[in-house]
Design brief:
Helix content: 55-70%
CATH class of the domain at 10-114: Mainly Alpha
CATH superfamily of the domain at 10-114: Transferase(Phosphotransferase) domain 1
Number of helices: 10
Order of helices and strands: HHHHHHHHHH
Strand content: under 5%
Radius of gyration: 22 Å
Distance between the termini: 59 Å
CATH topology of the domain at 10-114: Transferase(Phosphotransferase), domain 1
Shape: elongated
Largest sheet: none
Length: 179
């Protein structure tokens, strides 16, 4: 079963949707889930726009230098261009990275993230100091700017509509008064 309806954020949309205008919902959900995991871990998007998503080329050098072999395998097995080559939910559940032991009491937020929240979320400094990100801005600060721009556009359109509505009401009142 395929769908041509997409309701969501562009950065989470699967590549096949941009190629064909449709996708298989369960495979698209796996893609979106793995983009979410990527964002949680790296605080940046793996792909920022439809062209990057269509090319579906993960920055393998970036990945390999920062994560375990198991997590690297999970990302490269799910964030792949061919939807039917992606791991299934059952395979993800059985994956070594998902099945590894986890003891919450051994972790602290600052240790896991390695950065303060202000540094990462508000300024967009998502790479360790001294590293240069020569790609597009994949940070949460970029997302925040995009959202703010959308709200500003929405507010402008809303004001324009309200102004048009007021003009129409004034016109109708004037018409009604002249009858």
């Amino acid at each position: 079963m395929y769908t041509s309806n997409f309701g969501g954020t562009t950065e989470f949309c699967c590549p096949e949707f941009f190629h064909t205008g449709s996708c298989q919902p369960f495979l698209a959900d796996i893609w979106a889930m793995m983009v979410t995991l990527y964002v949680i871990i790296f605080r940046r998007y793996p792909f920022l726009n439809p062209d990057e998503i269509k090319r579906c080329q993960l920055d393998l050098k970036f990945l390999q230098s920062r994560i375990s072999e198991e997590l690297y395998d999970l990302f490269t097995s799910t964030l792949t261009h061919q939807p039917y080559h992606r791991l299934t939910m059952h395979e993800i559940e059985k994956h070594d990275w998902v099945q590894q032991p986890f003891h919450m009491e051994l972790y602290s937020w600052n240790t896991v993230t390695q950065n303060s929240l202000e540094e990462t979320f508000l300024t967009g400094n998502h790479l360790p100091s001294g590293e240069d990100d020569n790609s597009n801005d994949h940070s949460f600060a970029s997302l925040t700017r995009q959202i703010q721009n959308q709200f500003n556009l929405f507010d402008k359109n809303k004001k324009d509509i309200k102004s048009d509505k007021n003009d129409l009401v004034a016109y109708l009142n004037c018409k009604h008064a002249s009858i």
